[in-house]
C-alpha cells in the first residue's frame, strides 16, 4: 500500500513516515506542497496523510486537488488545528478522517486500517491484487500466493515484494530500495537489501524453474 505523508514540519513528516515504513507500508514524505503535487503526478497513492497548512498554503485546497487527481485515494488530516470550523471544512473538501496533534501512533495505524476497510468495500476484490504471472499479492488482506501455495512474509518482506511488483520489469537500485523500504540514507553501507532479496528468493523462487528475482550486475535487482 502506497502512502504519501505531507506535513508542515519536516521532522513530523519523517516521524510519521518512519513509523509507517516499520509497519510495512511503502511511504513517501515531504513538507513541500509543490513536491507533493509532483509526487502525485508520478505515483498513484492509496492514501495521503495531510496537514491543514503546508508551505504556508492550504492543505484543504491540496485535498480538493487530490480528489481531482485520484478520487479513490483515502485522505487523513493530521494537524494541530483544533478549530471545529477547520475540521468541518476538512471533511467537506474530501477528507476521510481528522486526527489532532499530539497523537498516539497506534491510533493513526488503526484509523488507516479503518479507511482501508472502507476502500475495500467500495472496490472489487481484483483491484486489491497485484499479479505477475502466478505470483499474487493482495495488499489489503496482506496475503501472498505463488500458484495455490500461500507464502508467509514478514512486514518488511511484504513491503519489499509489493514495491518490486508495482515496479516490475524495472531495475531497482539498492539505494532506491533502502530509501523506499527502510528509509536508510544512501551512504549507508549495510547489505540489508541483499539479505531481504535472498529471503524473498528463498520463499518465492526456490524449488521453481521459473524465477522472479534477477540480479543486474552493477545496478541492482529486477522482478520480471
From TrEMBL:
<dbReference type="Pfam" id="PF00072">
    <property type="entry name" value="Response_reg"/>
</dbReference>
<dbReference type="GO" id="GO:0000156">
    <property type="term" value="F:phosphorelay response regulator activity"/>
</dbReference>
<keyword id="KW-0238">DNA-binding</keyword>
<dbReference type="GO" id="GO:0000976">
    <property type="term" value="F:transcription cis-regulatory region binding"/>
</dbReference>
<dbReference type="InterPro" id="IPR001789">
    <property type="entry name" value="Sig_transdc_resp-reg_receiver"/>
</dbReference>
<feature type="domain" description="OmpR/PhoB-type">
    <location>
        <begin position="127"/>
        <end position="224"/>
    </location>
</feature>
<feature type="domain" description="Response regulatory">
    <location>
        <begin position="2"/>
        <end position="116"/>
    </location>
</feature>
<dbReference type="InterPro" id="IPR039420">
    <property type="entry name" value="WalR-like"/>
</dbReference>
<dbReference type="InterPro" id="IPR011006">
    <property type="entry name" value="CheY-like_superfamily"/>
</dbReference>
<keyword id="KW-0805">Transcription regulation</keyword>
<keyword id="KW-0804">Transcription</keyword>
<dbReference type="GO" id="GO:0032993">
    <property type="term" value="C:protein-DNA complex"/>
</dbReference>
<dbReference type="GO" id="GO:0006355">
    <property type="term" value="P:regulation of DNA-templated transcription"/>
</dbReference>
<keyword id="KW-0902">Two-component regulatory system</keyword>
<feature type="modified residue" description="4-aspartylphosphate">
    <location>
        <position position="51"/>
    </location>
</feature>
<protein>
    <submittedName>
        <fullName>DNA-binding response regulator</fullName>
    </submittedName>
</protein>
<feature type="DNA-binding region" description="OmpR/PhoB-type">
    <location>
        <begin position="127"/>
        <end position="224"/>
    </location>
</feature>
<keyword id="KW-0597">Phosphoprotein</keyword>
<dbReference type="Pfam" id="PF00486">
    <property type="entry name" value="Trans_reg_C"/>
</dbReference>
<dbReference type="InterPro" id="IPR036388">
    <property type="entry name" value="WH-like_DNA-bd_sf"/>
</dbReference>
<dbReference type="GO" id="GO:0005829">
    <property type="term" value="C:cytosol"/>
</dbReference>
<dbReference type="InterPro" id="IPR001867">
    <property type="entry name" value="OmpR/PhoB-type_DNA-bd"/>
</dbReference>
Amino acid at each position: 500500500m502506497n502512502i504519501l505523508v505531507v506535513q508542515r514540519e519536516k521532522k513530523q513528516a519523517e516521524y510519521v513516515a518512519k513509523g509507517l515504513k516499520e509497519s510495512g507500508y511503502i511511504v513517501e514524505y515531504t513538507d513541500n506542497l509543490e513536491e507533493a503535487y509532483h509526487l502525485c503526478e508520478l505515483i498513484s497513492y492509496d492514501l495521503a496523510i495531510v496537514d491543514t497548512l503546508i508551505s504556508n498554503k492550504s492543505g484543504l485546497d491540496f485535498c480538493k486537488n487530490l480528489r481531482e487527481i485520484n478520487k479513490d485515494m483515502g485522505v487523513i488530516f493530521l494537524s494541530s488545528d483544533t478549530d471545529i470550523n477547520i475540521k468541518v471544512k476538512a471533511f467537506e473538501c474530501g477528507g476521510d478522517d481528522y486526527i489532532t496533534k499530539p497523537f498516539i501512533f497506534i491510533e493513526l495505524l488503526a484509523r488507516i486500517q479503518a479507511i482501508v476497510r472502507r476502500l475495500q468495500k467500495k472496490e472489487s476484490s481484483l483491484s486489491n491484487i497485484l499479479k505477475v504471472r502466478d505470483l499474487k499479492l493482495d495488499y489489503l488482506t496482506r496475503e501472498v500466493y505463488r500458484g495455490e501455495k500461500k507464502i508467509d512474509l514478514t512486514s518488511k518482506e511484504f513491503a519489499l515484494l509489493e514495491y518490486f511488483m508495482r515496479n516490475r520489469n524495472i531495475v531497482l537500485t539498492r539505494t532506491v530500495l533502502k530509501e523506499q523500504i527502510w528509509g536508510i540514507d544512501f551512504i549507508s553501507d549495510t547489505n540489508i537489501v541483499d539479505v531481504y532479496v535472498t529471503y524473498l528468493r528463498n520463499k518465492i523462487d526456490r524449488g521453481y524453474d521459473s524465477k522472479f528475482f534477477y540480479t543486474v550486475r552493477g545496478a541492482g535487482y529486477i522482478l520480471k
